[in-house]
Write a structure and sequence with these properties.
The complex is a heterodimer of chains A (239) and B (630). Chain A is of the alpha+beta class and 239 residues long. Chain A has helices spanning 20-26, 80-96, 101-109, 131-140, 172-176, 215-225, and strands at residues 2-7, 10-15, 50-55, 58-63, 74-76, 146-148, 155-157, 184-187, 190-193, 198-204, 211-214. Chain A is globular and about 65 Å long. The chains are: A alpha+beta (239), B alpha/beta (630).
Chain lengths: 239, 630
Amino acid sequence: MTVKFKIQGRTYEGTEGESLLGAIRRYGYEVPSLCYHEAVSPYGACRLCLVEVQKGKRRKLTTSCNYPVMEGIEVFLDTEKVVKHRKMVFQLHLAAAPAAKNLKELAAEYGVTSTPFQPADEKNECILCGLCNRVCDEVVEANAISFAGRGTSKRMESPYDETAETCIGCGACVYVCPTDCIGMQEEKNIRTIVRWHRDLPMQTCKTCGRPFAPTFQLNEFAKRVNLDRSRFENCPDCR
Amino acid sequence: MTARIQTAADLKTYRQKLTAGRDPQKKTISVCAGTGCCAYGSTKLAAAFEQALGERKLQDQVQLRLTGCHGFCEQGPLVVIHPEGTFYRRVKPEDAGEIIDQTVQKGEIIERLLYQDVEGQSYRKEAEVPFYKNQMRVLLAHNGMIDPTTIDDYIAVGGYASLSKVLSGMKPEEVCTLIKKSGLRGRGGGGFPAGVKWESCRAAKSEDGVRYVICNADEGDPGAFMDRSLMEGNPHSVIEGMIIGAFAIGHPGKPEGYVYIRHEYPLAVERLGIALEQAREMGLLGKNILGSGLDFDIKINRGGGAFVCGESTALMASIEGQVGEPRAKHIHTVEAGLYDKPTNLNNVETWANVPLIIDRGIEWFTSIGTGDVSKNPWGGSKGTKIFALVGKVNNTGLVEVPMGATLRHIIYEIGGGIPGGKKFKAVQTGGPSGGCLPESMLDLEVDFDKLTEVGSMMGSGGMIVMDESTCMVDVARYFINFLAEESCGKCVTCREGLRQLGIIIERICAGEGREEDIQLLSDLSQTVAEASLCALGQTAPNPLLSTLKYFREEYEEHVKLKKCRAKVCKALIKFTVIEENCTGCLLCKKKCPSGAISGEKKEVHKIDQSKCIQCGVCHDVCKFNAIRVE
């Protein structure tokens, strides 16, 4: 259902229930975020896409990624409150993931270049946004990784931090990771997803002889679409 | 156990039969078998009574009854002799025979087993003991009377009559309206009007008619045990409330029930399981309950020990087998909760209130408590509230008072004041995320709104009393660290925010606080409170914000003067020998675990500060008051 709502005082249209952050960006406004991706469900972990939403008489600070677009709401970006808390959130991220380069750049865009907080592991780049996990579950449907632990010991891991047995080596997690901290390498016909300890031999194209995808991944695809395995022996270029 | 009860009339006949066969004047020995008293050995005590009755061939004349928690846990094991109501505490198995011979048979009192207050006055009857006398025990009224493992005991005192009343003469919508008009608000801490929630859940669309009715029994606040005692002592009251709720919310349709209970509550799980089984056998759960056409059953789901799973959306994720993480509630759980179906979740104590309200009526319920709910269910706080009164207070235990009772009434008249002649300093209400209120707030009338106004909260009803020997910075440190550990870690403000608050406050307690730290604590607390995803993060800074507000001078002393006035923070205290008092007895030197004390016999001793670990043993063992703490 199409509904009308306001951003910064101007009226826009959206679909009821869609992500507010998605709608805000569609209309050209900038709101930072690290854990949002339009291909997967919103999660609300990075707390950077803060906005103020007025709904009826109530006005509140909320993340916009997981806020559903509704008829009649009014959205305010960059209010004093938003700016103040977003700065603090950036500072927390900078302390939690001191080695995350992309994070530093984004924070700098919003004028945050240092943090008053004590950094955690100096080498840490992961901000625990869970995008890798969501893309793996919701898009790839391989369910290869998940969060482990709780609170300050929470981490993203392959099961028991050993080889992720169901990982098909597609690299979707590597692609969506906002801080580039998963790592994918190809060497001697082996594709490695570094963080999930997954080494997968590549299949070479029957026609051109080029390694083009992990054999395990092609086996999985053949099973899923119920086609003969022989249909997966050529690379996309030679098909 | 008898045949299934199929109609409201069956239930009435069954109750009449039960009460006719019971002599209210029969001598009964009630032994508390709540978790607290069991830990004190009440299981052995009950066995001793059983044996002693057998030896005297009195099994038929005297009834031995194991009941749920009586509430005065600190004095356990507790025994009450009925019908007189004679109250004995700290009863040992060897006392069993004497109690039967003297009190049960001759009506004589055994003085040494009576409760004595701090002034030394003894009390014979349970109802006279100030701890009980000053309470208003409505929900807990039957805890000391019934055997929780016997459904007949509950039915005999009027149990399931409310259910029968609802099923035989009310429409589901009427029940929702009645609960709304009663002003019953969620006892789990949120204080949301239960009737409003029920109505919304009933109105929400469910394609297949399934609506979930959940009891939140994941009571995780340190030191709180209200819900546990209700489930252990009177499980059927919770079950009855839930069946009434299922009818009001989901009938006609397919209501389904869950109790999400902590796995750390084995006795509550066991007793609730027995109660559910008995209710099923009687036909009070299952198909076509009391001939009304209502089909409803309840499953027990045990929690795995995560504090955050007490948050409703995390709890539902946990039941589904997902990681116990909360989600944003922009779409309410009454619309899409467990398995995306309309779901109504209430706390144990909320459910237990329901049969009482149906039975005694709105007028009775609204006559207790604060405010006016006749036009607005948020207009006040009605009914009673159970608190777990613990900490530096003479009488610790479970306390039920009308909403609006003052903190002073609870702490002094029921709790008997602060032990050891020490001075009251603060009381924390609402569990780990509650605020610490100072002495000037003792006359505050405790209800949902007043507590929130002063920066604390009702929470589920924990109440921790602190005296002058408590360091408020240390208290905030403890709770922030507890919550940092129990945060699910999903959102950065809670996970990282609490960790950083912990780092800063640890530094202050260690004497390394910086000038800017107090402001940083305050600013970061604001962000954690306002920008976190769920109620755990949003309320987590309460202990910090409230101590910063009411006890700011203690923070300043820690940071600027490197002083801890309560002498708790080890890095800020120093032990020295008072030369004129020291007799050179060698005791402290012998006991010091770090070898920091030197000195020969009959010579003044000396403490080497570089070796001292501030354990305080020297101070505790010195008979001559010769150790100074500063």
